Amino acid sequence: MVVRGVIHAHAHTQWDVRSLPLPPPTRSPHVSVAPSASRAAEVLSRPVALNGLTVPNRIAMAPMTRQFSPGGVPGEDVASYYARRAAAGVGLIVTEGTYVDHESAGNSDRVPRFHGEEQLAGWAKVAADVHAAGGTIVPQLWHIGMVRSAGEPPYADAPAVGPSGLRMDGTAGQGKEMTQADLDDVIRAFADAAAAAERIGFDGVELHGAHGYLLDQFLWAGTNRRTDGYGGDLVARTKFAAEIVAAVRAVVSPAFPVLFRYSQWKQDVYKARLAETPAELESLLAPLAAAGVDAFHASTRRYWLPEFDGSDLNLAGWTKKLTGKPVITVGSVGLDGDFLKGFRGEGAPVKGIDDLLDRLENEEFDMIAVGRALLQDPEWAVKVLGGRFGELAAFDASALRSLS
Q1: Were both Cys, which of 65, 73, 327, 335 would link to 320 (CB 3.0–4.6 Å)?
Q2: Residue extents of the structural domains in the chain
């Protein structure tokens, strides 16, 4: 997600201040703000294994793209930003989206890149500082595809590319349909970034397949109208993403975790759905799991909403049920209200986490990813783990102007 001039959410869950108006949020029936301190610590403090990585607790920092890296280089302030949250109890940091080495991958010269000597040196420092603070960290590898517009940085001459050259509203953009050579170049770029991540000390990688960016553009019928092997039914539309997963898996160690983030909703198309039924969702997820995904990160706007009729399971719950893989849930954790409202200048009250703890105890999913609450309060995790619920504050959108 990206917030222009402040934070861009891909949620980097890429957040975009150009978001359309949202319907009123559905309130959870669980409104208690303070579960017992011992229960929160017991449930959230358990380690969890993601392939060969043991994460010390069940709390992750959701990826939230910030435009704080001039020239695509993460500096000391970026290292401090992540290390501060790791030191305060976040078990797994998922970084903001980072551009892979393809000229069409991004649209900002202030979003970090995961290629280039200076850029990777900066990321190595980030990883080292997070480890010194007691946390684990994975970079989110990202290509925005047809979200790019002509003339945007960091490479102004690069065209937007996508499965069919279509924007999210289905109209033709100022870009092009990807050729086989284009596909091969992007696959190689993701694999190179993953290999670099392991080489410089990261604990795994997350592939950004959500929110209407490039991989998601292939997964969704609304933007993928191809008639070759990369288009057609839902299984065929997974081919490109699965090939990226397989290429990544081939260049990293067998125990190195590969995470995959996906969503039903797209930026500006909030009602979009990749799968209307559990069977369709299984058709989507099975090829990705078979290609080498170790854990899924299922992005929703409100984690407490059921995904399909007839079951209380959310998207993460269905993902775990269908794949057997570890799953991270996300979507307004700790706050009552859709995260996208924050970029319209709206705050959000604190929301209890009793229902979240219930779901974790029932093994509906394995981890929770926290976004806005951790942006505003770097100590959110340690406060929750320590039962200091009275110190949690409502979200103030003005906090986005001074992130540290």
Answers
A1: 327
A2: 7-401
